[in-house]
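From the pipeline queue, job 12 of 40. The input is one protein chain; the requested action is below.

Action: predict structure.
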Amino acid sequence: MLYHAVQIGLDMAIVNPVHITPYAEIPVEERELAEDLIFNRRSDALQRYIEHFEGANMETSRAELPVDPTLNMSPAERLHWRILHRRKEGVEEDIDEIIVASLTPTPLPVERGVTLPFWGGIGVRGKPATKLLSISLTPSCSSNERGRR
């Protein structure tokens, strides 16, 4: 397993990443079977390994996911997951959704007592001075209502 080779010092190898399943995605049982065989932990390791993988279709077991893990993710999180797990289906749609969201202005929430930084005047040696502007927002009332009070 490439994982163990890296752990003991392998720092370069020419591989096709399409044909490599990341270590974390290999089921624990299959990892143990492979490690038993590689490290000669059991006398029957080869027999157990062969029996386990006899007739198993690797592509279907890797492609099958019981539940869509991207179901409740934001478009950016979905894109990150798809890139990390080398799933190209849906990447273009996620990128389009992220671009549209970044071009759509979002309204700022209105809160009471908001403190906003602003640039005012000229500071030391020509650098602008930063000041804080404290705004207290109260419900507005029309001039007619003010006159009645």
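Job complete. The longest helix spans residues 91-103.
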